[in-house]
Every structure is written in C-alpha cells, then in structure tokens.
Amino acid sequence: MSIQISGVSRRYGNHQALADIDLRIESGELVALLGPSGCGKTTLLRIIAGLEQPDTGTLELEGQDVVDRHVRERGIGFVFQHYALFRHMSVYENVAFGLRVRPRKQRLVEAEIKRRVHELLELVQLDWLADRYPPQLSGGQRQRIALARALAVEPRVLLLDEPFGALDANVRRDLRRWLVRLHDELHVTSVFVTHDQEEAMEVADRIVVMNAGRIEQYERPEVVYERPASAFVSRFLGDVNFFHGRILDGALHTEAFGLRPHEAAEQPSDGAIQAHVRPHEMVLHRNPRESSQLLKARVKRVRPLGAEVRIELAADDHERPVQAVVPRQQFIEQRYEVGEIVFVEPTQIHVFADRAGFAARSIAPDA
Predict the structure, then answer these.
(1) Radius of gyration of the chain from Cα atoms?
(2) What pLDDT, in 10s, does the model give residues 183-228?
(3) What is the torsion angle, in degrees rounded to the nearest 10, for the CA atoms of residue 294, residue 328, residue 228 and residue 199?
(4) How far apart are CA 288 and CA 113, in angstroms?
(5) Strand partners, 87
(6) What three-state secondary structure class fits 75?
(7) Which of 216, 229, 271 lies closest to 248, judged by CA?
(8) Residue (of 313, 306, 305) closest to 336 by Cα position
(9) At CA 16, angle to CA 21 and CA 27, rounded to 5?
(10) Distance (Å, rounded) from C-alpha 42 to C-alpha 34?
C-alpha cells in the first residue's frame, strides 16, 4: 500500500506544525520520521492515520484520496508510545478487541477470532501470556502485545508513534531487531516516528529528516549519513566537529585548517561556510606532515566506549573541543596519553554555506 502526501500543511494558531509537505512512501517500505521534538513528525503521522486533518493538501493511499475518510475506513493500524492497552482485559482480549468491534457484517465468527489471535500471539512470540493482564507484563512485552493488536485487523498501513521510547536501552535494541524481522515477514507498509538517530538508521529502509515542519532530506540511511543535505541533517545524525570558515578563490579556509576543495556545482565561489567533520573521520598523527590540513592539538581526555575510544582534543586555534574516535585496537597499539601533542587530519569534510540558498557537498581531501 503506497502513501502519497502532496502539499500538506497544518497550523495550530500561530504555530506552523507542517509546511507544504510532499512525500511518497512505496508499498512495503519501513520509513522513519526522524527529527527533534516539535518538528511535526507526530502531526504528520496522525494526519496519515486520520486522527488529524490537514489545512491544505492531499493524502492518497494506493492512489485513492482518503483525506475525507474516517479513520475506521482507512485500514490503518496504530501503535502508541505508551501501549494504550486495556488494563482490565487479558492479553487475549486486548488482541481480539479490534476484531470484535467490527461491524456485524465484517465480524469473524468466534472460532476464527480465536485462531487469528493465537496466530498473532505466536507471531510476536507471546502466546504463552494469553491469560495475563497488562500490569503483569514487562514494557517490552506490552509493546509487542500492542503491535499484535494493531496487526489483528490486517491493516494496509502500520503506524508507530515512538514505539520504543518508554523502554530501556537494551530492550529497545532487542525490539528494534525484532521489528525488522517481523516487517521482513509481513511486508506491510510501515511508518514510525522517532527522535533516536540510531533507531532510525538501524530499522528504516528510508529516513525522513524533519525540522520546523519541513522535510530536510528523504533518503536511504547510508545516504542521509554520508551525504547530508544540510548542516541541520549533518548535526542531527550524530556527533560532528564543526569549524567556521570561508571559501576564497576556490580554496577552503577554516579556523583550524585549509585545503583546496574539488570543484562542485552550486557551491559559493566566495562566502562563509561551516565545515563538518565526524569524530571517526579524524586521523591522529604523532608527527607533523607537509600538509595544511593538519590541526595541532593536545589530548585532553580519553574515554573508552566499548569497541571504540573517544579522544577529546584541545587546539589553540579552535575554541571548542575537538572529538576523535578511533578503534579500540588502534588505541591499544598507539596508546595516546593525556597531555600529549598530536596532529589531526580530516579524511572527509562536509561543507555547508552559512547563508541559505547554497547546496551542501562533501570533500575528501587530496592525498
């Protein structure tokens, strides 16, 4: 079931929640709406569900305009962040609820409802809890029951609003992997809201990065991460070291280093820029080299992070701390010490104009 959103806007008083949103989600895709609180992602999800109405624009499911259709007529399953299970009903009754409240002509016989419920409980690997009540379940179990209840009515589209936000980190990771496996089995078109970058990168086929009611970028996770379309996307999708600078006569000059970038379309020939470098794109050298790309810095702090080690650096020419991340094995071999002087070289630089109207690009410095 494909979803086509065209020109959708929504305003609450003086607040523009959504501004002229255009978005197409293909049948069977698992898409993440990612962005900070208040960016409009939940409003967009509720408009797809029929729980909110847009001020302008159209919404089509498989080519049919459904803006004026009631939520019950859209064939959509909705999973809320806080489960919304009926506390006085057993797990079995919660999952069966959507099947039992169907119009009489569409309602299944009791034997078929029973078969369907147990089939779904097996699917979410919780058939053994059918007689329990929600307060007797863990958070992860309740979320899976909420998903089974949403799937019971065989929705054409599945919507999930921050489905793992109320769970601890380990349970979230387990459920993310489980959701991907479930989606691969069912192939139902799914859209989920999250503000967790790692969650979106791990789960989604494509990511919609939203900011202030607008779509900043809509692409596959690896494209959004490796080729961010804006400074906002770059900074929202993980840690970055950012440097202010200018492009003068085709050469990039920052407060920390300089290099001559490759030619690229739509980049200002002269103008203020931001240069972003991710911590894992910083290479450390103990000895200076013949390069204008090196930043001299002092090791300020070393923090092991499992398979990686984060090194915080202080540079005389840069007021903010510089972060570098190296593989743990490399750190064991090099043994950088606090107070040691090192030379930092960027391997990938993402350049963005400081003023609006210019495109972003990435630069791999010449060897």
Answers:
(1) 25
(2) 888 889 999 999 889 899 999 999 999 999 999 999 999 999 989 9
(3) -160
(4) 72
(5) none
(6) coil
(7) 271
(8) 313
(9) 25
(10) 10
Residues 6+ apart with CB under 8 A from 367: none
Q: Which residues contact 319 (CB under 8 A, 6 or more apart)?
A: none
| Token digits of residue 116 | 């369907």
Q: Calculate the CA 173 to chain-centre distance.
A: 14
Q: Is 238 exposed, middle or buried (0-12, 13-18, 19+ CB in 10 A)?
A: middle
> In this structure, what DSSP letter does residue 127 have?
G
Q: Taking the chain, what is the end-to-end CA distance rounded to the nearest angstrom? A: 48
Measured distance CA(227)–CA(150) in Å, rounded: 35
E-strand stretches of 26-172: 30-34, 56-61, 64-65, 76-79, 157-161
pTM: 0.83
Per residue in 296-347, pLDDT (tens digit) is: 899 999 999 889 999 999 987 777 899 999 999 999 999 899 999 999 888 8
Q: Where are the alpha helices (DSSP H) in 124-264?
A: 139-152, 169-186, 197-203, 221-226, 231-236
Distance between CA 295 and CA 272 in Å, rounded?
Answer: 20
